[in-house]
Amino acid sequence: MDVVRIGVISVALVSLASLPCLIAWVIVNADDAADRAGKTVARLRPHTPAHPPIEDTAARLRELAAELTDTPRDALLRRAELTDRYDLTLRQACATMDIPQYLTRLTGDDADVERLRLEGELEAVGLVLRGPARGCR
């Protein structure tokens, strides 16, 4: 019985003596452990893209361009609404493809020229902006 008692007391004393070392080790390595845990959680979390698929954006641009073409010139309010939606979608496509754009700063003829420039840039990277909209044959 005395041997067991001495063993338990020895283990307890060694544990108490090594406790400061264990605490120091945890403090020193806590940042690395937190980084590893954060990276693991990020890997396990499902990835959500920042932008919708570029194919959907291009199809929406084609749809809006067709609507703008079909809208009479005297329907000013409708044309302004469609142009705003087209510009928003165009800016979204540029953000997805990392193309700098200045549509938000321009008005009138300057905005028209910027739209043409952006359409050319997007077509240069392979987007089809002319042609049938989705669902049209």
Plain-language structure description:
The chain crosses the membrane at residues 6-28. Keywords: Membrane, Transmembrane, Transmembrane helix. By secondary structure, this protein is an all-alpha fold. It has two domains: 1-48, no CATH class; 54-124, no CATH class. Helices cover 72% and strands 0% of the residues. The chain contains four helices and no strands. The chain has helices spanning 2-44, 54-70, 76-96, 108-124. Helix 2 packs antiparallel against helix 3 (76-96) and helix 3 crosses helix 4. The longest helix has 43 residues, at 2-44. 9% of the residues are buried. Residues 133-137 have low confidence and may be disordered.
Key structural traits:
mainly alpha; 4 helices; disordered C terminus
Task: Give the secondary structure arrangement, pairings included.
Layout lengths: L1 H43 L9 H17 L5 H21 L11 H17 L13
Helix pairs in contact: 2-3, 3-4
Instruction: Describe the main β-sheet briefly.
Output: none
Task: Assign a percent range to the helix content.
Answer: over 70%
The gyration radius over C-alpha positions equals 31 Å
**Number of separate helices:** 4
Give the low-confidence spans: 133-137
Shape assignment: rod-shaped
- In percent, how much strand structure appears in the residues? under 5%
Would you summarize the structure shown here?
The chain has 137 residues and is an all-alpha fold. The protein is built from four helices and no strands. Helix 2 runs antiparallel to helix 3 and helix 3 packs across helix 4.
